[in-house]
Amino acid sequence: MKTILVVDDERNIVELVRMYLEKEGFAVVAAADGEQALVQYERSGPDLVVLDLMLPKLDGFEVCRELRRRGDVPILMLTARSEDVDAIVGLELGADDYVTKPFNPRALVARVKAILRRTDATAKGGRPIEVGSLRIDPRRREATVGSRRLELRAREFDLLAALARDPGVVLTREALLEDVWGTDFPGETRTVDVHVAEVRKKLGEDGPQVETIRGLGYRLVHPPRPALDAGHFPVAE
Q1: Are the CB atoms for 170 and 196 separated by under 8 Å?
Q2: Structure-derived torsion over alpha carbons of residues 95, 57, 5, 108, reported in degrees to the nearest 10
Q3: Does 233 map to a domain?
Q4: Could you give the C-alpha distances from 225 to 129, 207, 213, 222, in angstroms and in order?
Q5: Does this model's pTM top 0.70?
Q6: Residue 202, domain extent
Q7: I need a labelling partner for 190 at 20 to 30 A (CA). Which of 84, 89, 133, 218 fits?
Q8: Is residue 236 part of a domain?
């Protein structure tokens, strides 16, 4: 049985989410503030955290940041604001996805299942993937560029693996959402953009590059070879 930690200071929301999750066979533990959330995380070792942003004592951003220091548990953030900025900050801190309040509890359960399904699938592993100097080991969930290990968050790893499985092939944002997050979330393709930006930083200049194809999506390509200086052409002996 998978355990879900639900963190929200609104009791009615916690009970609503608890009811729908338990009906689907999940065990649910709850916390009403940020400090409690960290205590419950250590105590129950949840498989996923549903985390509200606006919390007393320690807000959701700080809780997310601290959870990422401690491990790679999947995080589904709840935000009451219609603006994208909170969600984007949450994703940059390592959240896997977000839901805007008010939400349909069935849709929230579907997202929880999708995230866990994808996490379980990647954890089972497979053959290593190599693209130039990049090597991805799905079983160990490790990625390296040459001898340099990439410090990737859970969804960043899954996104890079999805692109690396088909190097040079353009994948739309919608296809990446389906592949990496396990379902289609209309209107929230910015989730992909935020994660791509982080993956690019971590690949650096010595690894393959994530190329934007305007109006289409992204593809993983080998970095261009440095141009030879006019004064440094190879000389035939």
Answers
A1: no
A2: -60
A3: no
A4: 22, 11, 20, 9
A5: no
A6: 125-221
A7: 133
A8: no
Can you read off the two tokens belonging to residue 62? 């700080």
What's the Cα-to-Cα distance from 224 to each of 129, 146, 154, 221, rounded to whole Å?
20, 16, 28, 9
CA distance 108 to 18: 11
Position 105 in a domain: yes
Of the residues 107, 122, 137, which one is the last residue of a structural domain? 122
Tokens of 178: 């389906």
Give the whole-number percent of the chain exceeding pLDDT 70. Answer: 84
- Mean pLDDT for 90-97 is 79
Return the CATH number at 190. 1.10.10.10
My answer on whether 21 and 75 are in the same domain is yes
CATH number of the domain bearing residue 64: 3.40.50.2300
**116 and 133 share a domain?**
no
More confident residue, 234 or 179: 179
| pLDDT top residue among 91 and 38 | 38
Instruction: Using the predicted structure, report yes or no on whether residue 186 has a pLDDT greater than 60.
Output: no
How many domains are there within the chain?
2
* pLDDT tens by residue, 62-76: 999 999 888 888 999
Cα–Cα distance measured from residue 187 to residue 99, given in angstroms and rounded to the nearest whole number? 12
Residue 234 lies in a domain: no
199/83 Cα distance (integer angstroms): 24
